[in-house]
Amino acid sequence: MKFRGKIVDGACLNHFTRISNMIAKLAKTCTLRISPDKLNFILCDKLANGGVSMWCELEQENFFSEFQMEGFSAENNEIYLELTSENLSRALKTAQNARALKIKLTNKHFPCLTVSVELFSMSSSTRIATHDIPIKVIPRKLWKDLQEPMVPDPDVSIYLPVLKTMKSVVEKMKNISSHLVVEANRDGELNLKIETELVCVTTHFKDLGNPPLASESTSQDRNPEHMAEVHIDIRKLLQFLAGQQVNPTKALCNIVTNKMVHFHLLHEDVSLQYFIPALS
């Protein structure tokens, strides 16, 4: 298996660095899937076990000026690598305002993702900072567990308010309770609610708008004001909100009553899906 890529455009380099920082905040370790036209950062803690899942996707041509890869085989032309997200994020921090960035799959006593950063220098010589990030190559038989998660038909799909606002609300709520109820309807209303023996606090967001649902039968059977709700771990929601570096162009929340909440963010050419299971 082979992989090498090069980014020379400054804006692409900064954008790629921001994505890496976001992933590091969302997942301690993640899987990097490399295919001929896409890169994916994947976290697949089993939803059934109460873990969150993440699927981040970017088109390689929007970032890389050079991109070559040879996967497991001609039929399975993909590479799956497990890495510590923080290591990649730390390596890319040195790439801010760099001349170029090269990423390559190497073997230096152990498999590595080698990140080489070409830095501007006062003299005519070039300075290069190199980081070897240890990785684990994931065998073909385990790929089936790392596919894009299926999203069941949501009971309600709603656009999210400004994520910064939502984060500051959830941060305050975390001091009162460890879990919260996310509820929304097809009338553009979203509520964040915590209830304890002593207090009940609800934050209301109105006029957010609802995208058309894929399954029209859902929308016909349901009173637009009826609330779909899901009970989740507040820390998992806060981790997701804290990971957002840039306000997305589009942010959606899909609620499957008492099962899960699915967030789908679009940042220009990057898509992030994040799944938080309901508390049992």
Describe the structure.
This protein is α+β, with helices and mostly antiparallel strands and 280 residues long. Helix content is 19%, strand content 41%. It contains 5 helices and 18 strands. The strands form 3 sheets. A 9-stranded antiparallel β-sheet has the order 10-6-2-3-4-18-17-16-11. A hairpin with a 7-residue loop joins strand 8 (111-119) and strand 9. Helix 1 packs antiparallel against helix 2 (85-93) and helix 3 packs antiparallel against helix 5. The longest helix is centred in the first third of the chain and has 17 residues, at 10-26. It is elongated, with a radius of gyration of 21 Å. One of its GO terms (biological process) is response to radiation.
